């Protein structure tokens, strides 16, 4: 709303200047363009220098007619712009416009629907992984607490098609439905799949019985914070040292270990080789923990396991080791 008012105020001033200049040039044949523009602007701003005056009766009548209009336009424009500046809206509008431009340039990004406690954790992790993303939420207080000044965001209802399109869903690779209610997450899943059928949707489920509904709605993955939290607490009691080790390795920023998944393409030199022949651990330092082949998950594969086209290899290692494996898998066979 403020943006539209500022735009109309600016257009009104420019329109008045153009109209007044053209009118004076029409009635005052001896005036040049600069003289006409000067007289129009002094009339608009009610400065009244008196150094340039209309010499014809028609010119005087024309200026008398547009003077009230000019005063009204200036009063309106000053009121709108001053109000925006005083309330900090102008800077906010420019910031939102710059953010919209950045979002419009995103490609293959993630849309995080919901900026609450769960959505914020998702955003933090994506930020650490340098993955482009945008947060969507309609609650200004939540955005102010978790998102403002940190991440790209769209303020609006994630259940609205237009809001998801503003977040660039047609160019996105995934949607995280992390709103507080399961019903909203079901609706987001349906909306996202309706706009882009092949987009990956990961949905939050607070109740176990909602998992089936989310999957039927099209969610590719369903995550229950309550279930994960409960299992984590049980393991912390039963195997505290192991849990601490996993937390340290995967979540401590002082350590660079992480997991990665990579699909082997037909041109990869690793196709047709066993894990022993590929010498992945020796060449990169990364460790193959599983292979996902079709619907079969091969956990802790042996060295005799032969790699096939479209195998998804799941690895564990440092960022440098994982990048080394990507280069090894992507290299063209000699």
TrEMBL record:
<feature type="transmembrane region" description="Helical">
    <location>
        <begin position="61"/>
        <end position="86"/>
    </location>
</feature>
<keyword id="KW-0472">Membrane</keyword>
<dbReference type="Pfam" id="PF02080">
    <property type="entry name" value="TrkA_C"/>
</dbReference>
<protein>
    <submittedName>
        <fullName>Potassium channel protein</fullName>
    </submittedName>
</protein>
<dbReference type="InterPro" id="IPR036721">
    <property type="entry name" value="RCK_C_sf"/>
</dbReference>
<dbReference type="InterPro" id="IPR050721">
    <property type="entry name" value="Trk_Ktr_HKT_K-transport"/>
</dbReference>
<dbReference type="InterPro" id="IPR003148">
    <property type="entry name" value="RCK_N"/>
</dbReference>
<keyword id="KW-0813">Transport</keyword>
<feature type="domain" description="RCK N-terminal">
    <location>
        <begin position="107"/>
        <end position="223"/>
    </location>
</feature>
<dbReference type="InterPro" id="IPR013099">
    <property type="entry name" value="K_chnl_dom"/>
</dbReference>
<feature type="domain" description="RCK C-terminal">
    <location>
        <begin position="247"/>
        <end position="331"/>
    </location>
</feature>
<dbReference type="Pfam" id="PF07885">
    <property type="entry name" value="Ion_trans_2"/>
</dbReference>
<keyword id="KW-0812">Transmembrane</keyword>
<keyword id="KW-1133">Transmembrane helix</keyword>
<feature type="transmembrane region" description="Helical">
    <location>
        <begin position="7"/>
        <end position="27"/>
    </location>
</feature>
<dbReference type="GO" id="GO:0006813">
    <property type="term" value="P:potassium ion transport"/>
</dbReference>
<keyword id="KW-0407">Ion channel</keyword>
<dbReference type="GO" id="GO:0005886">
    <property type="term" value="C:plasma membrane"/>
</dbReference>
<dbReference type="InterPro" id="IPR006037">
    <property type="entry name" value="RCK_C"/>
</dbReference>
<dbReference type="Pfam" id="PF02254">
    <property type="entry name" value="TrkA_N"/>
</dbReference>
<dbReference type="GO" id="GO:0008324">
    <property type="term" value="F:monoatomic cation transmembrane transporter activity"/>
</dbReference>
<keyword id="KW-0406">Ion transport</keyword>
<dbReference type="InterPro" id="IPR036291">
    <property type="entry name" value="NAD(P)-bd_dom_sf"/>
</dbReference>
